[in-house]
Amino acid sequence: MKMLAPQEIVDVLKEAAGDAFKEARCTEWAEGVKGNKSRQVWIRLDRKALRPALKRLIEIHFPHLGVISCTDLGEEVELLYHLFVYYGVPHSEIMVTLAVSLPKTDLSIPTITDLIPGALVSEREKQEMMGIRVENIPDGRRMFLPDDFPEGVYPWRKDATGIPSDMVKELWTTGRENLKPPEGAGATEEEKKE
Amino acid sequence: MKTLEIKKTAPYTTQIGPAHPALKEPVMFTFELEGERIRKADFAPGKAHRGIEWMGLRRNCVQIVYLAERICGICGITHSLSFCRAIEQVAQIQVSNRAHYIRTIVGELERIHSHLLWAGVAAHELGFDSAFYLAWRVRENVMDLLEYLTGNRVHYAIIQIGGVRRDITPDMVPKIEESLKFFEGVYGKLASIFLDDTTIQMRCRDCGVLTPEEALKLCPVGPTARASGVRKDVRVDHPYAAYADLELQPVTPDQLTGEIRGDVYDRIIVRLLEVKQSIGIIRQCLAQMPDGPILAVPKMALLLAQLKKAEGEAVGRHEAPRGEVMHYVRMGKQESPVAWKVKASSYSNYMSWVPMLEGEQVADIPIIVASIDPCISCTDRVTIVGDQGAQVWTKEELHRLSVEKTRQLQLG
Fold first, then answer.
1. CATH of B12-49+349-411, one of 3.40.50, 2.40.30, 3.30.390, 2.40.160
2. How confident is the model at residue B377 (pLDDT cuts 50, 70, 90)?
3. Nearest by CB: B250 against A82, A88, A139
4. Residue A114 contacts by C-beta under 8 Å, 6 or more apart in sequence?
């Protein structure tokens, strides 16, 4: 197997993504005495390029999908598909992260489970935790949240659809008044501003 | 995987859980049965979800190190190490090589204790309680050594952003060596019990098979993937900590038997060989350990001030005893991270249960479920009580069935 360098992977995926390619960067990080480096590629693209880019990556080497991460950025939500190629050969693995931003007005993304069946757990989690709509998902049930969890509440959101304060149990209310945190402690930056 | 309906005619649908049929953790299984055969299997985790990521986004990074450590009671350094590695990459904090070696030694001791814990549980599920007592007796020694090195048996609190909190001094080395000799001494006995015993072979050979293709497509990690011949091991593939300096090869079952079948037995082989590999790694680390400070930024106030200025994103990974753990962290010049996603090893291994269980017998459920060494609390991270009314099989009944199957096989 001929292995591509991180920049070559960027070039190949850029071609597959076409005009939907936004930006890419390659990073390295060394630990240990010998200075062997681990290599990462971060590629940001539009939603329509996710599947073409992933298909192209599968042709290079069938990737291991670590997980799909998700960040609430205010107006939009970013999904990051952490994929790994060239595992099995010592120190050769490259992490390829495909990041896709979705506006909160349209949080839909095509499924990748037909390409990588193991993505199902992660896609189900994104639906319930962040309110992403995964199109053509073979099994859209909740994964970690119970069936009686309220509809329209998404634990990972940082806006009004996130966990409301009346759902949070404060441990100090069980009688240990001395454990009450100072005013404003434990809130996110956004919550503090409010 | 479609929702299975409860019917009063064959094939029958039965539920097992949420009390875990193999380990003492909650996960719900639904099976469609035809006689003793499992036709379809489905699972529902989330019974131990504590919302740890949500809590983390309301804390500073040093507080998260301790919170992350409490994600799992077995993988004591796995989550704190992965989280710290992500933060170090974002804030560009260079960890000293001595700290890298100490992290590796503790990580490998953790692997030995976790694999022994698993070996004990697996033996118990098969009804082989003397092997269970032996494995856990040996594990106690590892726990004692971990307590000697870190101060704690379970949550070691040794990892900190920028290094480790306790050094391994020269006077500690003889005691480590003494324990390693002890492990080597009993390793042969444990290996012969698990690998040469006819009953264990009868129960585990060609049981709960995961084919290499499934092992590739369902993205399992750790011993579950390697036992099916997929050579994934973060320690080998991705240079980090002291593993970056060592020459390692992923452990696969063909190294012992010359073939890969991807069954429960192969998973036993992989874990046993990995115990031996871990002993070797600890010896190498002790021999090569460089001098230097153990913490890059010893003053926590300074560290927190530095982290408050950090901006960027990174992924920290570690090969836990059960496989790859990864933490994605994004910082945005504020006290708490903007995003924190934890991916535990069992998260990746869950989907492998379905092909493993389908076609097998009810009595094989405990050992197959246990064979991926599931860690439910790692994967679930909001407390809920699930109450499903239909035919629930208790753990005791299943355990009894499993033991009976072993007895029947022994009687021939």
1. 3.30.390
2. low
3. A88
4. A136
